[in-house]
Write the structure tokens for this entry.
Amino acid sequence: MGFQSTGFQNLGNWLARLARLDLTVFDDVKDEAAATAPALAVMLVASFAAGLGTWLWAVVEDQADKGELFLKATILGSIFQAALWLLWVYIVAMILSRLLGAGADMSRLIRTMGLAFAPMAISLLVLLSILSIPFAAVAIGATFLMTNAAIQASTDAEPRQVILANLAGFLVFAIVLGILSNVAEWHHQGGLAPGIFFFNLNV
């Protein structure tokens, strides 16, 4: 318990440094075993924030069946997004280590890429209807850039290899969420996906 609490005690400092764009935070986190649980918590909270923002958008817009949307986009969508984030990390690790011959440790990547997922929480601001898509786009763009820095810090891969592996993992993440937005659609707006992925298929 004390081991895990040490990581959570440092979490505020890590997030503050990330907000200041102090990317050396990834160097500190990558080999810190106590950072694993906090990094996963950041990813889970950011995923939930994306789903919550989608539901709050429906509340602000006074849409019908908001309870159904909460279940689909906020609860299930957040769970699916978190699972696909793990797949994203796995793809990055496999491409770098198996295909490109770079040193890539899964535990290191989970710590750094989990922390780097924090900008996805910006998706909470999709509740502001007039700026829903811009805020959602900023969230996903900032997350991709941060994960790129996280991978660079936690592996010995060259920048070109990092971009290639991260893009491959992100594309799978985005494509599957795009498919899920077509599943169990809510009023033809979107389905089992939060944030920008929910709004992707607006008609």
